[in-house]
Amino acid sequence: MNRVLPWVGGAALVVLPFVYHEAYPLHILVLILIWSFIYTSWSVMGRFGLVSLGHGGFMGIGAYVTALLWNYWHVSPWFGIPLAMLAASAAAIVIGYPCFRFRITGHYFALLTLALSAIVLQVVTATRDVTGGSLGYTPERYEGGSSIYAVQFIGKQTWYLIALGVWACGLLIRYRVDRSMLRYALEAIAEDEDAAAAAGVHVTAEKLKVTVLSAAMTAFGGAIYCQYQMFISPDTVSGIAVSLQMVFATVVGGIYVLLGPTFGAAVTILLTEALRIWFGTAAVGWDNLVYGTLLVVFIIFLPQGVLGSFLASLTPRREQTV
Question: Considering the domain boundaries, does residue 193 fall inside one?
């Protein structure tokens, strides 16, 4: 029975846009799926004690590189997105290698990655003649509307299926990491770096692997978000606020649970939409205030997150893999 339920649930998600056509609910579902992938990308490294506050920078790199390549040189996102992922990977190596080589860990590592978010935000804002700065940036629309070449689609159903596939790929990547030797190496490093190194684990290399993987995935998520929204700004795809949102959503859902980031994405997106509908422009910035308050509450009272705590209550002595 437990093996059948995931297949039934997956089939229901695929069929959903063909039987339900309301644009706004589908839009919310697309956002939840895209952000779920981004949060899952953060959790790939965050669950091993590598708490990064710089993933907003990786997301911004993915979004802006893809959009700029399309607008200025008409490079299709099919090529622009891989290039954006390479750029984010390079940034991850630049900031990650010195940290891991000189054993900068814990809150010092978090602060250094925080600088990356701030740098990307400042670069985007300062180069406003190219990126649009704080006013935002819009990729050029392809003539004729929908285009596979430009990865631009008008229908919500199409984007829902794309987002569903992206989300499923994110879960698969994390699942594979959790079943690989990389996981055991990183868990050993998180427990004791010296002992792990003495056992033959290449500490710097293993940390760098998962950091580059997480950064590339986050950049991919940023590029997909850009293609869907067709508008990006420093506040929506880069900077400290976006990085903190990733941490909040993952912690709320459950950082050690496969579907934890997805649950966290549903909470954050629905909370943001509810504040926008109920309070309008008077609630601008309230979501970050609520995120911060709830983050403290969850860290104190539900360190495993909502979904993680629920599953732990069902099977407290068995490792959760859902």
Answer: yes
Return per-residue pLDDT of the chain as tens, 322 residues. 566 777 788 888 999 988 888 899 999 999 999 999 999 999 999 999 999 999 999 999 999 999 999 999 999 999 999 999 999 999 999 999 999 999 998 889 999 999 999 999 999 999 999 999 999 999 999 887 799 999 999 999 999 999 999 999 999 999 999 999 999 999 999 999 999 999 999 999 999 999 999 999 999 999 999 999 999 999 899 988 899 889 989 999 999 999 999 999 999 899 888 877 777 666 666 666 777 777 778 778 888 888 888 888 876 554 444 4
Please tell me the total count of domains within the chain: 1
CA–CA dist 294, 251 (Å, integer): 10
In a domain, 133, yes or no: yes
Query: In sequence order, what DSSP letters do the residues of 57-86 get, joined into one string?
Result: HHHHHHHHHHHHHHHHH---HHHHHHHHHH
The boundaries of the domain holding residue 92 are: 16-237
